[in-house]
């Protein structure tokens, strides 16, 4: 008998018990779908993470100020507060001493409420140079970015991020109008384009929310807001002095990134007593994310594999019942000339039909992963808006990505599982004594 | 007397048992089901094996059908000594030299009439390309031309047994072994089935049939009566 005849025979034998066969198929279907869906979700999440890291730039090196540990600054701490972090001189040293660095942007940030008339929006006030926009790939939607002349002239001008602009100016055009930060007024000269969050980097664990930023010239920041930050925490004043929160350096060649980062580390080490900075290389983050992705996939595959094994046990159960039930048929076939091997083959083909059907249907359902996620998201959004708001942004933006290898693997494993779990029942069928089998009622 | 008009020349020997014994162990005791049976089957024979329950007739049929091996003695079929063959070889011998007709028909429920007739062909090496045509022809021969695509459950007992007979013919066997072929049928249908076997025998088929009904046995040419594992008598009927 050729393969098609075998498959046809297997299918018809299984049709003797439609419900039973359908349940066995369902077991495999769920397993295969689980593999495809879980891997697709995992790929979606890690793709998101990778995109965020890529947004930081593969050629950039990010140096951030971090607050040193309490013990490290306990003796240096005084009534006048503590000073830590990157210095303006660090920026000068980096830009002048390292030839591989083609551009660098110093940045200072602070959380402040931003006002316009009755509107108050909590925002991140960023003091930066004009290059900040190009290095962070932050296109301006309307108006202009900050200019060098703004810095030189200590101008009170600002570029608003997309969300801030929308909330402060729900109706009017923000360009040319004034907003208030603290006691100072700033004229809006530009609005940035909508931009999704970037990956978390050292020193700040939450993703960078570009849409909540308000940009002002670095020199203006220094003059109007200053280096000193006084906060009240737990009834005591905390007095901190920070010159720069971040320096983003761009290297002209990807190959030079690691070496340049090492030089920056060595350079900073000489001028900082405590480690109050972190050097982050997005390229390294990318590599770490890749490793994470692999581990994640293996884990998901393992979990999904378990459900496939459960499906396989279901198949074995059903095939054992089938063999017992069709003992007579086995006896007849043996009498009519079937060898043991041919009986094994016949029943193995039946399990292949079962698991193969489950596999194919599972792949088909697997393709529905994207629409299903969309549907569930839409359902939550429409019927449970409160729940929706509490969900993390990862869920809001998650797009499952079907991995071709997972489809092939899931289908292959399902058929493999069918064969492995089918061997025992098939052998049991073949090893029956034909006389006993023929006598079986 | 055993010769018919069609077999003018010396009939060919198709199977032979010589001093065959079969001993079972039952509850720690040896039970001799066959105590030494010798017989020759020639082409065109129509042999009925009779005997009371426990006389060894089923055991003998199982041995002849290569479903069991003798404890001692020889069984030659198609030039092979069956006792010396491996399980796979014995399976091939069954498929090639034997046709089975069972008391309870033993058709495969999920297959149609034609497909049931084709089953022995699926175990033939090499595969016959004209299997379906041959099976259709045989179905017509046994009078089931209009029911080729019916399932066994849609047929009467007599019709099912006809399918079984067609199935036993499809591999052109040396010997057709029939185990109480009319055991489940009423008298009229039994006669029809026996008529069919008669016709087959007249065309040169060798038939060995186990039965306990004397009027069925009468239709065979030769009646072997077994008793306590031995051949008690061999009678030739008038043909």
Can you characterise this structure?
The complex is a heterodimer of chains A (441) and B (239). Chain A has helices at 3-14, 18-56, 88-97, 131-135, 148-152, 162-168, 218-224, 257-271, 282-325, 327-335, 340-366, 369-383, 385-390, 393-397, 404-430, 434-439; strands at residues 60-65, 82-83, 101-116, 119-128, 140-143, 157-160, 178-181, 184-192, 213-217, 228-233, 236-241, 246-251, 277-280. With 441 residues, chain A is of the alpha+beta class. Chain A has two domains: 3-53 and 288-439, no CATH class; 67-275, no CATH class. In chain A, helix 2 packs across helix 11 (340-366) and helix 11 runs antiparallel to helix 15 (404-430). The longest helix of chain A has 44 residues, at 282-325. Helices cover 29% and strands 29% of the residues of chain B. Chain B has helices at residues 57-64, 87-97, 113-118, 131-141, 157-169, 187-202, 214-217, and strands at residues 13-26, 29-42, 46-51, 72-77, 80-81, 98-101, 175-179, 206-210, 222-227, 230-236. A six-stranded mixed β-sheet of chain B has the order 6-7-8-3-9-10, with helices on both faces. In chain B, strands 2-1-4-5 form a four-stranded antiparallel β-sheet, with helices on one face. In chain B, helix 4 (131-141) packs across helix 5 and helix 5 (157-169) runs parallel beside helix 6 (187-202). Chain B is globular and about 50 Å long.
Q: What is the CATH class of chain B?
A: Alpha Beta
Strand order of the largest sheet of chain A: 3-4-9-6-8-7
Helix/strand order of chain B, N-terminal first = EEEHEEHEHHHEHEHEE
Main pleated sheet of chain B: 6 strands, mixed
User: What characteristic shape of chain A results from the CA principal axes?
Assistant: elongated
Contiguous low-pLDDT stretches of chain B (5 residues minimum) are 1-7
Tell me the helix content of chain A: 40-55%
Mean pLDDT of chain B: 89
- Mean of pLDDT of chain A: 86
């Amino acid at each position: 008998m050729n393969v098609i005849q075998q498959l046809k025979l297997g299918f018809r034998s299984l049709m003797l018990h439609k419900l039973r066969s359908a349940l066995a198929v369902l077991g495999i279907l769920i397993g295969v779908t689980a593999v495809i869906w879980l891997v697709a979700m995992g790929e979606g999440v890690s793709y998101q993470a990778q995109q965020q890291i890529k947004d930081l730039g593969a050629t950039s090196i990010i140096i951030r100020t971090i607050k040193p540990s309490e013990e490290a600054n306990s003796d240096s701490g005084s009534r006048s507060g503590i000073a830590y972090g990157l210095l303006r001189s660090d920026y000068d040293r980096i830009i002048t001493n390292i030839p591989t660095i083609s551009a660098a942007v110093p940045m200072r940030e602070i959380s402040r409420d931003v006002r316009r008339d009755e509107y108050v929006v909590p925002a991140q006030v960023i003091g930066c140079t004009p290059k900040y926009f190009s290095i962070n790939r932050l296109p301006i939607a309307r108006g202009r970015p900050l200019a060098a002349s703004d810095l030189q002239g200590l101008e009170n001008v600002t570029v608003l991020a997309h969300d801030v602009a929308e909330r402060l100016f729900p109706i009017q055009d923000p360009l040319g109008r004034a907003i208030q930060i603290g006691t100072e007024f700033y004229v809006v000269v530009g609005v940035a384009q909508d931009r999704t969050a970037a990956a978390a980097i050292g020193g700040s664990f939450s993703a960078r929310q570009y849409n909540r930023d308000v940009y002002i010239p670095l020199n203006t920041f220094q003059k109007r807001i200053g280096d000193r930050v006084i906060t009240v925490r737990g009834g005591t004043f905390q007095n901190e002095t920070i010159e720069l929160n971040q320096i983003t350096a761009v290297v002209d060649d990807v190959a030079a990134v690691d070496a340049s980062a090492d030089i920056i580390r060595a350079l900073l080490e000489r001028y900082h007593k405590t480690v109050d900075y972190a050097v982050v290389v997005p390229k390294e983050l990318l590599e770490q994310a890749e490793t994470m992705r692999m581990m994640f996939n293996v884990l998901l595959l393992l979990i999904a594999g378990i459900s496939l094994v459960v499906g396989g046990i279901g198949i074995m159960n059903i095939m054992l019942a089938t063999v017992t039930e069709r003992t007579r048929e086995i006896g007849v076939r043996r009498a009519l000339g079937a060898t043991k091997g041919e009986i094994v083959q016949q029943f193995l083909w039946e399990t292949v039909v079962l698991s193969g059907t489950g596999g194919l249907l599972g792949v088909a359902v697997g393709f529905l992963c994207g629409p299903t996620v969309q549907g569930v998201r839409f359902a939550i959004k429409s019927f449970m808006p409160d729940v929706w708001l509490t969900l993390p942004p990862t869920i809001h933006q998650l797009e499952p990505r079907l991995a071709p290898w997972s489809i092939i693997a899931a289908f292959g494993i399902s058929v493999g599982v069918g064969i492995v779990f089918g061997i025992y029942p098939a052998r049991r069928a073949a090893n029956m004594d034909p006389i006993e089998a023929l006598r079986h009622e | 007397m055993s010769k018919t008009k069609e077999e003018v020349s010396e009939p060919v020997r198709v199977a032979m048992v010589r001093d065959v014994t079969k001993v079972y162990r039952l509850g720690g005791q040896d039970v001799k089901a066959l105590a030494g049976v010798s017989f020759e089957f020639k082409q065109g024979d129509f042999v009925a094996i009779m005997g009371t329950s426990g006389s060894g007739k089923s055991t003998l049929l199982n041995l002849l059908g290569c479903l069991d091996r003798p404890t001692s003695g020889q069984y030659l079929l198609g030039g092979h000594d069956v006792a010396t063959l491996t399980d796979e070889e014995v399976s091939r011998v069954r498929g090639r030299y034997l046709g089975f007709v069972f008391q309870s028909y033993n058709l495969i429920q999920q297959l149609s009439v034609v497909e049931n007739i084709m089953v022995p062909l699926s175990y033939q090496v090499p595969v016959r390309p004209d299997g379906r045509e041959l099976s259709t022809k045989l179905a017509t021969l046994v009078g089931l031309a209009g029911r080729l695509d019916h399932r066994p459950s849609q047929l009467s007992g007599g019709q099912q047994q006809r399918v079984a007979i067609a199935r036993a013919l499809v591999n052109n066997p040396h010997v057709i072994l029939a185990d109480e072929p009319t055991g489940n049928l009423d008298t009229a249908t039994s006669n029809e089935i026996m008529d069919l076997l008669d016709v087959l025998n007249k065309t040169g088929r060798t038939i060995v049939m186990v039965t306990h009904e004397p009027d069925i046995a009468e239709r065979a040419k030769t009646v072997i009566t077994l008793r306590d594992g031995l051949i008690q008598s061999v009678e030739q009927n008038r043909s």
